[in-house]
TrEMBL record:
Organism this protein belongs to: Mesomycoplasma hyopneumoniae (strain 7448)
Full protein name: Uncharacterized protein
TM regions (residue ranges): 20-41
Keywords: Membrane, Transmembrane, Transmembrane helix
Superkingdom per UniProt: Bacteria
Taxon lineage: Bacteria, Bacillati, Mycoplasmatota, Mycoplasmoidales, Metamycoplasmataceae
Amino acid sequence: MHYKKKKKNTNLSRKNLLTIGAAVFFGIAIITIPLVTVANWRIKDPRRQVQNQAKLITNIELKDEYQKGNLSYFDLKKQLFNADNTKKTGIDYSQFFDFYQKNNTSLPINFATDYGWNRYKLDVFDLKPLDQEQSFEIYYRLVYQLPDDKKAISDLLTQKVIWNYLPDYSLANFANFSSSKLEKLRAYTNKEFSLSTKKELTKLVKLEDFEKQVNWAINNNEARKIINKYFNLEEIIAEILNNKEFSYLDESGIWNPRYQIELVRDQILGQDFLAQTGQKGIYKLTFYAAFSPNFAKKIAADLNKSSKFHFGINIDLNNLFLDKTVAENIKITEFSEDDYYPQINFEKNLEAEINGWDFLNYYNNQIFATQNEREDFLKKLIAKIVRTPLLKKVEFENKLSGVDYAKFLKYLKLDIKLDANSTKLAFKNNQIVAKIFGKIILRNAENQIVAEKNFSQTIEHLNRLGQNDAELVKQIKQTKFEFKPETRKKIANQKGAPKSEILALLNANKFDKLKNILENGDYYGYEFNEDRLKLLVDNSQLPNVEEFAKLSVVPEKMSEGIINLWNKSFKTNQEVSTFLSLLAKRDISFVAKYWYDLLNKFKLIDPKTQWPENLDQNSLFKHLSQIKIQPPEKKAVSLTSDFWLFSLNNDYLISPDYLNNSFYLHSNLKNTLELIKTESAFSTRDFVEHIKELAKSIKPKDFIQEKGKNPITNLSEFLVAFYSLIYSKDQGLLAESLGQNLDYKIQFELEPISLNVAVSQEKTNPNNNLRLKYWYKIGSVDQNGNLIQVIYQTKKETLDLVVNENNKLLSEDVEKLNEIATNFPSADQIIFLKKEDYTQLVDSIKQVIKTENTPVKIDNEIKNLPFSQFFENNYPDYGFYIIKTSKNLESSKPEVTKPVAARPVAAKVAAKPSAAKPEQQEIHQSEEIPGVLTNTISQLGNQIRHNFDLYVYKKDQPQIHSSKPVRVIIIESSESLFALK
């Protein structure tokens, strides 16, 4: 009979107490699972809640260690009380007792960890010894800490606790010992897993799968076997049962265990062997301890042989099982020399030599219909250099160190996917190498991705790429990087610089300083076209459609058949070009879907023609011709026409001579469009190659004659127009960052001349002018920006320089102001003004100008214009001057470089107003201010345009100003666009 049911009978004999005591089941537990759902504490009466919780305690027992055979009641009393029966101070009396609740009489309450109890503190208010009964009367209460240092305290409760002698072979003692051992349950190590066919590794199995396996076991034996596959359960149980302290000698002198341990389902819910607790990742296993059959027979005369003592342990399964962090323990090692194909000894042929530049240029200029095609192509190129597959370089480390690779693959599938769009160059071991990027992907048996990890790998010995493939070498060498160094004279009459200064810079290799002088309008006013090279060093990333669309706007109405998409993330025209180049480099299907999604965001796609679900990549263009483009609402005026030009960030307004970031359907592409409709034998890639060839004949100014000729009606035509822009620039697709620590540097040298030529020049060139050669080197640079190794050099071009010993170089202060003027993003700072507002601006400028060729502050007169507010926000210590000349010396005064774009400034008008059509193309001289405001006519948009030139000065040094002007475009329109105040 259970002891707790008879504990109130204090007249039981000592013998009966001993007999019953062996069957007492006051459990020893590490942590218990939630037993009671505690009410929400946001109630009006927290004390009532504490009171109800305290009433759940139904039984109190002395802990086992105070009831052992070598400790009597009076020994225990001496620990708690003085000789006069007064309590000793400094003792936590609650630590001597186990408290049980009525819903779980097997396991004591753990007030530190048990869900539902860990919010309370148990306060033993008083304790009295009852010597005649060998028991203690305990007075206790529950305390809950409330906000503001207040407490909710239950009523004082009392119970009588009997000291009970426990023999050495008590189940309670054994259960307590077993709990402490089982608490150390551990998962198998990598080595144990690799050396055994019966052990599993927790890191390769999801926790929920393990939990399901255990709890779906038919019986406790099967559940034990499953747990033992992952944890050393049976090892610990064997260690416990073989402990001589819990064993006995039988008649034959052999040690046998007194007890047995069995796994059982949770005692509260009665369903799971592995029960969840209220804490994440903490699970409970419940066992019972019982006498072994042989020992039960031996003591049957004294004890209940069928007694069982339940106890539970907590196991922390956090960070033990498979999750996405498993990939952190996998790496791909660098290729060793043995992994590469050996160098073939043959006579070195420089023309056939392939370096990193050749490799990257060739690879980037290939056209692919899909991303998979691009990845396969990259793998084939790598396989011509390296004979060891990437998968062979996989290694396990840290938590997977020592795991057998073959056994690992029985649980998880390991794959490698290359990011074929991110291949770069790098500098390693004093040589340029290719750097590839990708992901290690882990999948489970259901082919679901469970973890991923990014990786990079370098490919050395790129010169071995074409060792056994002469045709490949030929293709690589034929893929030229088309870049011809170009300059443009921005002023007609160059003043020149002192010859000695130029030669000194040449001899000191100060080429950047020399380039600044050549660009400066006070000396030469050359503009170096380096746009193509800048793409190779700018570390730009293609934004996803969602990000791009959020920062973009398309006017609701279309004028002149032009759709202009405005994106405020672009700071310069060069950034717009970079965006288009990055997009063009991707596979064709990606480009098509990108444009579709973007146009669809702005309702430019006919909703009746959606993206096809099952798209045949080989007939991509034909499918895209079914997706109709729906232009914005047309204006009800004669200026409107069918959509024919797509422009980004007002590119069509920047220059009357070219379209840099706008595209249209050129007439020479009509044949391509017909082939798309009729020719099924052409692949998607073939069509783009065809566009590439035709685009070479497109000239920068062709858009003037092509204006409105060929409407863009569907996505196929849109894509053809896009690719024609990309290839008409004749820059190929190597148009993004080459890699980290790679840069380009301009080079200069005096053109070498023979003695006879020198004598001839002395006669024809008495001023002894200079002829310079300039070109660019591309390669790896050190931390100071100096070239370490050159991988590519452009062709050399010539500059004829006049020299002028009297035109001294500008001071550093002026150079700094020129730098601000050059870098000020003016292309997107277009000013829209009504005719009367423009006239008012002209009048206000005339009022402040007193004399010609004298700098005049203009900050107050332009403070309501958006570009002025932008300048003030970004350059608060600087302002603007204007300088009126005696007459229009536009051809002889310095100009800014190509306007660059900036983030837009908030304005009173939500959308940019439409340009007004001039009454006549004649521009009246009276509307101009020489050197300040000059008039021009745009080829597109039918607007009246004015160039507004300003010079930068520093407020604390007003005596100096930039020699280069900032040029802002003013367009007369139907509405004026002013800055917000």
